[in-house]
């Protein structure tokens, strides 16, 4: 199978794909796109679709949105109507489909498929704002601090609803062993693990990397980009930040002269940034995290917080370095340790091949075929 071919699917049943929202270009949106490519005739149902804010490949897909989605112009507006989207998903008519594949962070898993249908949920994480509310700042959620306070007041009720609805799903795929453990702990459900993919062949290794460190991702509080900036300020190391988000203005205020914000980069721009960076800095506790895998596909090492999905994608002292605490001192020590070490780009790239797109395609297709 060449890279331009889709995996062969002989499934005759009617399939639909459901994803939370297409309002950003992040890892879960990439996974939803990959699933759609495996089943190209399956329509995609989502709450809101902002074509200019997410991956351009979605423009070639059949996409259905919820009522009033057309009034939404940005991510913040979308999040302010979260209860409306929840209601919309719970009332979504999917009766014409035999197999429904939901790609869910916080909304898509709340569909109510008919009893005659098979619901397969690719669960990226237990709803983070319910189970890890402290990672958000007021600026990273709709309605600011008032919104955070309301969620915390209603947390027992919202968690109960989340557990009850999630436990109705009979087939769950987790994006990592880390998330499979959380699903077991929170929902008491078993999940099969299929790692999110990247197209390793699409990334290249530079013979002469540059002198900058790189951060790639959304600029929101739980990503802890501020710690990365403060560490690079302190060491006077050049840092390029590729991404955008609610926290950007605050982060720009604390950034020194060695820090450069490039905003949201195209895929080609990101590939160049990856291949030419000194190392990727990854300070967040992620459920899985495609960014470290993309950096490794480019032959570049990762300096990561020792937690979450990074423990499954980064091999210490071979493809990167870990730091143990989410503070600037720990990141500074990790950067200095990294600078005293040598890494083999070929070994780093080889590790990334475990997460190659063709493996994901085969596993997803085999998983769905069992319900034929």
Account of the 3D structure:
By secondary structure, this protein is of the alpha/beta class. It folds into two domains: 15-197 and 356-369, Glycogen Phosphorylase B (Rossmann fold, 3-Layer(aba) Sandwich), CATH 3.40.50.2000; 200-354, Rossmann fold. Helices cover 37% and strands 14% of the residues. It contains 15 helices and 13 strands. It has a seven-stranded parallel sheet with strand order 3-2-1-4-5-6-7. A six-stranded parallel sheet has the order 10-9-8-11-12-13, with helices on both faces. Helix 8 packs across helix 13 (328-339) and helix 11 packs across helix 14.
| Beta-strand proportion | 5-15%
Structural class: alpha/beta
Order of helices and strands: EHEEHHEEHHHEHEEHEHEHEHEHEHHH
The CATH first-level class of the largest domain comes to Alpha Beta
CATH fold description of the largest domain: Rossmann fold
Mean pLDDT: 93
**Main sheet record:** 7 strands, parallel
Q: Please, how many domains?
A: 2
Question: Helical content, roughly?
Answer: 25-40%
Using the 3D structure, state the CATH architecture of the largest domain: 3-Layer(aba) Sandwich
Would you identify the CATH H-level superfamily of the largest domain? Answer: Glycogen Phosphorylase B
Low-confidence stretches: 1-5
- Count the DSSP helices: 15
Radius of gyration: 20 Å
Number of strands: 13
Shape: globular
Strands side by side in the biggest sheet: 3-2-1-4-5-6-7
């Amino acid at each position: 199978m060449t890279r331009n071919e889709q995996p062969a699917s002989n499934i005759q049943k009617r399939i639909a794909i459901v994803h939370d929202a297409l309002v950003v270009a992040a890892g879960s949106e990439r996974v939803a796109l990959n699933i759609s490519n495996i089943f190209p005739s399956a329509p995609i149902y989502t709450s809101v679709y902002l074509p200019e804010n997410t991956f351009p490949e979605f423009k070639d897909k059949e996409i259905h949105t919820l009522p009033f989605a057309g009034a939404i112009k940005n991510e913040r507006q979308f999040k302010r109507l979260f209860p409306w989207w929840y209601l919309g998903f719970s009332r979504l008519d999917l009766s014409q489909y035999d197999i429904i594949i939901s790609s869910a962070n916080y909304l898509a898993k709340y569909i109510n498929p008919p009893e005659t249908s098979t619901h397969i949920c690719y669960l990226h994480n237990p709803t983070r704002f319910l189970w890890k509310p402290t990672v958000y700042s007021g600026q990273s959620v709709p309605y600011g601090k008032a919104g955070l306070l309301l969620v915390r007041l209603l947390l027992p009720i919202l968690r109960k609803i989340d557990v009850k609805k999630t436990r109705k799903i009979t087939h769950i795929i987790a994006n990592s062993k880390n998330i499979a453990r959380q699903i077991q702990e929170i929902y008491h459900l078993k999940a099969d693990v299929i790692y999110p993919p990247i197209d390793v062949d699409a990334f290249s290794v530079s013979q002469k990397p540059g002198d900058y460190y790189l951060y790639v991702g959304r600029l929101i509080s739980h990503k802890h980009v501020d710690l990365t900036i403060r560490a690079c300020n302190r060491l006077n190391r050049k840092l390029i930040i590729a991404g955008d988000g609610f926290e950007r203005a605050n982060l720009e205020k604390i950034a020194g002269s060695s820090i450069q914000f490039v905003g949201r980069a195209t895929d080609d721009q990101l590939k160049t940034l990856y291949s030419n960076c000194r190392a990727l800095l990854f300070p967040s506790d992620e459920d899985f995290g495609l960014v470290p895998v993309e950096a490794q596909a480019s032959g570049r090492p990762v300096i990561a917080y020792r937690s979450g999905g990074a423990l499954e994608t980064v091999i210490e002292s071979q493809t990167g370095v870990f730091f143990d605490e989410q503070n600037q001192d720990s990141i500074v020590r990790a950067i200095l340790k990294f600078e005293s070490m040598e890494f083999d780009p070929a070994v780093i790239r080889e590790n990334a091949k475990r997460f190659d797109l063709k493996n994901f395609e085969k596993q997803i297709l085999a998983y769905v075929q069992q319900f034929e």
